[in-house]
User: Fold this.
Amino acid sequence: MLQLSSRFAAPLVILACTLSVPAAAKDKLPSARPAQIQELYACRDIADASARLACFDREVGELATADQAREITFTDRETAKKARRGLFGFAFPKLGGIFGGDEDEVKEIETTIRSVSMDQSGKYTLAMEDEAVWVQIDTTRLPRQPKPGQKVKIKVATMGSYFATIDGGRTIRMKRDR
Assistant:
């Protein structure tokens, strides 16, 4: 079996780390604007007032046509924030900033229990007021059974799981079911 000496292994490790940095940094680049928006913004650079107005009229018309054909979608920060909150707990690939940037990433939510059930192994399923359903994945026993109307704080844990704290009590590990 071929063994690398430390004299060759160390530079190879450094080279591998160096080559992986641009790939990781690529995910952090801002998403490209749609062509329709870029063309609209380009109208600002036209010096002649009548030509600039004609450009704006043309590009806004094309933007309206793309909107009506559902080729482009508009949203505001608040709507995107609500969408991210509603999807909290589900694993999705990076969608190019479709719901805003990482600075608005939801790390925890607070919600209210609508209903509670327990399976044969004593693990809880919590249905929330916001229609989300969370399932306990650890074996932690709670001193008091959760009840409808109680507040729950759910925050990101590790390896795709989440910590749920019910009315400030003991924390249990959960995953989003639906």
In short: The longest strand covers residues 108-118. Residues 6-26 form the longest helix (21 residues).
